[in-house]
Design goal:
Layout: H1 2-8, H2 12-21, H3 25-100
């Protein structure tokens, strides 16, 4: 009973050290390995939480940049096509105008 009273007055740190030193070395080593793995996993998880959103934002900005370039190319193609169409209309209108003139004017 007297020992219980003395154990009750020990600090948590003292109790933990007493428990640790009363264990076999393999158990302590296993605990150290498991603790190291858990700490490494926690840090890896924190890195993943930081890196994945940044990487996704980089991918998204790349897609947006490509989309902007493609939209610009599409607009340029539309403008070129419209310019070709207006040129063809002018050529066809000029040809029709020449066909409506008398034969001597066509030569």
């Amino acid at each position: 009973m007297a020992e219980e009273g003395t154990n009750g007055s020990k600090s948590v740190k003292e109790r933990a050290l007493e428990f640790l030193f009363s264990q076999p070395p393999t158990t302590v080593l296993l605990g150290a390995i498991v603790t190291t793995l858990l700490a490494g996993g926690w840090y890896a998880l924190q890195d993943i939480k930081a890196m994945v959103p940044a990487h996704l934002m980089q991918i998204q900005s790349g897609y947006e940049r490509i989309e902007a370039k493609q939209s610009e190319q599409i607009q340029l193609l539309k403008e070129d096509r419209e310019a070709e169409r207006s040129w063809m209309r002018e050529v066809l209108n000029a040809r029709k105008a020449l066909e409506n003139k008398p034969f001597a004017a066509n030569q």
